[in-house]
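Box S2. Input/output pair 1.
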Amino acid sequence: MRESVSKENVRRELLAAFKVVLGSFIYAVGFQFFMYPNDIVTGGLTGIAMIINYLTRLPVGVLTIIMNIPLFLYSWKRFGLRFIAYSLASMLLCSAFVDLLAQVPVEMTKEPLLGAIYGGVIHGLGMGIVFQTGATTGGLDIVAKLLRKRYQHINIGTIIMGLDLFVIALFAVIFRLYDRAMYALICMFCTTKVVDVVLYGAINSKVCYIITDEHERVKDAITRELDRGVTFLHGEGAWSRKEKDIILCVIKQRQIVELKTLVRAIDESAFMIVSDSREVFGKGFSSYNSD
């Protein structure tokens, strides 16, 4: 038993290490081939390093490593050795890949809008893959993780977006490249959306409330035809003062049309409320993940 658990842990850590390498490489590709050539500043310490690079021509990767040192020292006790090890590896890999790819004579696009969109998507994909391991790419991502630990109701992509705004504004003021700052905002929006999709998934579940006098028949149809569980919530009509059971169910997005058809066939006067659900944990949906 212990041997199987140990093998599973080894496989999990090997997968995490692979994700760190892959995510770091994708991160660097988005930055070096799409953002940097079009003067689209990224946020975080990489963005600050990019500003210093424009002023001094010092390598972005080396500057990023130097500025990350105090942040790693501060977060050592807060997140533990595993976080530090993977985040340090990711930060070093990102910095190395950025400087290595700078030597590759490839020009993907000189159109700033394309650079902002594709750079943001690729950049965000790399960050999201690294974040899946519980690590970060270093820099202000560590600050975002610290804030996320305290404000868990805010997605990490949203926190990163707020921190990046400051760096982008600083870039615009120093170099008076306001149009590039606007492109950077587009890039930042794409990055944060992709990070959230990679971490939390696309919205593919719906929460449904169904108010009907035929609640037993509707319940039977949902469990039989859609293979989904339901919960009865006890309610009372404010005008009629009549008690009735409200059906609560969570279904996959692809099942919503079928659910509407089932409910309409049983009770055309049923009142139905459908809303998006970002995350659903439990049988038939996502598993719990402490990271």
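Box S3. Input/output pair 2.
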Amino acid sequence: MGDWVQNRIPEISSFGKSDRGLRRANNEDAFAVKPELGIMALADGMGGAAAGELASRIFIESALEVFSESAVRSEQEATKLVRKIFQRANEKILNHVKDNPRHKGMGCTAELMVYYGENFILGHVGDSRTYRFRKGQLQQLTHDHSLVQDQIDKGLIALAEAKNHSLRNVILRAVGVRENLAIDLVRGKIPPGDLFLICSDGLTNMVDDNSIKDVLSSDTNLSQKVEYLIELAKASGGDDNITVILSQIMGL
């Protein structure tokens, strides 16, 4: 009984929404908000409308399949399940492309947040992002796997140049592209009050961090914050699909 209490799913308030944006004919993003399972997942498809939508859906379905089969009771189990989800989705997409060569190049970026006990573990591939908002401070927990970010890291371009760079959409790592998939894992504690933002680049390419921080600081509920972030992205051009998930730790 003691172990169960220690590793139970925390009380989470959450809300997610996806919007096609203003310039795309289809929405290639997919997401799942399952506080009862302790998971939040987001995938941003690539490879053309039909293939991109399928790739992102495969990732989300893989996440829900794995978590319907298993329960998280320790950091070791959480890590194992996160890796299993990414690997399962990676294999499924690769197998689909093998059977459907016309979909060559399909894949997706992916964020997978798992809450358990007093902790979280986050799996990350691509340029979708996860942020933590704590005591008025916004912190980006993920590092973009993109050509532009790589050039910033190497000092080849300045951060200010990245937003309008001609190669800003080039992704260096994605689910379903190579057999060997490297996954970033981020771990941390979740004191009550922490607010996590998971989003596709349709938000972050359009809305800067200070504006995101202002919305998260506002005295509104989670659904209103999500709606406002999406509207800000669309007001700035809405060039891509926009998916936003907010989850707040209410109690442990």
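Caption for Box S3: The first strand starts at residue 11 and ends at 19. Residues 149 and 162 are 8 Å apart (CA to CA).
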